[in-house]
Amino acid sequence: MRGRDERRGSGTPGRWPAVAARAASLARSGTRSWIRSSPGTHIWLLVIGITSLVIAAASQDLETFLLHRTSSNIHQLTKHPLQSLLISGFWIENPSSFLLYAALFEVLHANVERWIGTARWLFTVGFAHVAATLISQEIVQLSIEDHSLPRSMKRVVDIGVSYGLAAAAGILTYRIPRPWRWACLAGVLLFFALPLLTGGTFTDVGHAIAVAIGLGFRQFTHGRPAWDFARVPEALRRAAAAVTPGPVSRRDAPGP
């Protein structure tokens, strides 16, 4: 009995390196497949990573110049409308937030792009970014004329990717199967509406517009399957089976 246990235990140490190597190989393959299936998301994320490094390495004066020069505020929209609308979507104000944005890109943008295709995803988030920016800045302009906001708001820093993320959150709601979809929809609406009900800023208005645009593009999801949560346990079992090697044969087993 003791000899049988020793022979059984002697094969265990050699098994875990094989499991780790197999898991690493599957992870690399899965990562490559994920990136290839959502190229727009990861190209966009790469550019944001580069611009974040530029901001992090810049002096205070240069940082201030870059943030204002690339903003889609009233001043820049008046002087360089197309340029400011495009460039403002590739910068974030705080480089330390890059990892958070990277996670949001993977959860929202990558899933939407994989689901409805790169062209439809790009049109949705691009349209939302432009429309939310123009409408929110028009509200700023009207508030300045009404003396509700100071004239300095014409040069406020207005950059970032949050309008596109809001649109992606809106359209991704349709991938949630019923009845969970309604709870998800209520959560999304509450998340973006609550700031407006508690004295939101022009940016909060832009977020609300962007998520409404994402929800309004439901036709882009027609014919696209929703997630099937019932298949998750089986998918996990298949993944575990792919990582774990089969039983060791008597010929390969160590020991006498």
UniProtKB/TrEMBL annotation:
Chain segments annotated as transmembrane: 42-59, 115-135, 156-174
UniProt cross-references to Pfam families, sorted A to Z: Rhomboid_2
Highest taxon of source: Bacteria
UniProt xrefs under InterPro entries: Rhomboid_2
Keywords from the UniProt entry: Membrane, Transmembrane, Transmembrane helix
Name of the protein in its database record: Membrane protein
Organism: Streptomyces hiroshimensis
